[in-house]
Amino acid sequence: MNQHLRxxxxxxxxxxxxxxxxxxxxxxxxxxxxxxxxFINGPEVTELEAALAAFCGAKHVVTCxxxxxxxxxxxxxxxxxxxxxxLCPSFTFCATGEVVALTGATPVFVDVDEATFNIDLASxxxxxxxxxxxxxxPRAVIPVDLFGQSADHDAIGAIATAEGLFxxxxxxxxxxxxxxxxRLGGFGVIxxxxxxxxxPLGCFGDGGAIFTDDAEFAELLRSVRVHGQGSDKYxxxxxxxxxxxDTVQAAVLIEKLKIFEDEIAARNRVAQRYxxxxxxxxxVPHLAGGVTSVWAQYTIRLPKGTDRDGFxxxxxxxxxxxxxxxxKSMHQQTAYMDFPIADGGLPVCERLSSDVISxxxxxxxxxxxxxxxxxxxxxxxx
Length: 382
Ligand SMILES: Cc1ncc(COP(=O)(O)O)c(C=O)c1O
Hints:
The chain is an alpha/beta fold. It has 13 helices and eleven strands. The site of pyridoxal-5'-phosphate (PLP) has 15 residues, from helix 4 and helix 5.
């Protein structure tokens, strides 16, 4: 590095490094699809669904066009609509609550836990009571496994069962993570994920999947996925979507899934070194007992009073990109601020939105680059 020049910029997520590792395998897989021309419902789609099921232990996998469609398809298949309430954390990507509003139901936003950033159980209970007080029928909860870390599914499941709700786990950021030794999607809870390119397992476009152990429900989802088809595609027995994963993306994902286990291990090594290097200057992510993370984001909290914009600019000047997920929680967004929030308010979501910042994180972040990032953060914070 020439000291008169700006330091080499570090990519936030290095998709090019992964492409180099994959060599020609993805190109060859795409070429096979271009040769057989079954661009919709080609053999790779079925092959991928089987491979994903084997990877996480789900009985049935229904791939689809995006993580948003995956959530929406489940709500549609469950008949969620006007008058229903669906509880979701407010500190999440907007799709979690957006799909609820799209069905005509009401998202009721609840707070998150200060340590894990995942749904807060006491606020969830308060949110259910809030929904009832407003004359809504609580039907479902969408916990989110935020930034790659599994939520506390036993505790959420217990509340859902007691209150008569079903659980739709939004694992858009966390496919590959586990809860008490079992991978998300593999323990019976209806689970969705996203294959957006920046996700831990991403394709080269949009994509998503739904995981369920219920064969009948999987069939229902397959119908919703193609315009609510019945015995054939010109027999429409329900309102549906056009939400298939295309064959080219399935072919890409089959190749990427082969190296995913190894990439998860690499992400965990980066997270460990970050924690060692930064744990005494900023608040580093906290993993709850019995869970793992795939580190979709490595999100730190800056000490009280730190100028977050100044911090980001100082790192940027050293070629280190950062990102803020999420500068506003959902209930603070123009489109969602009129929806109800759990009684007691959402103070943790609001605090997190004001002090979190995410550092570069991917499986190809080598140790010298990690050290450069650690040094820059320490340089600003100490
Ligand atoms: C928590 C969460 N839910 C849902 C989605 C939606 O996924 P997609 O972008 O594939 O529609 C995302 C994507 O960023 C997400 O992070």
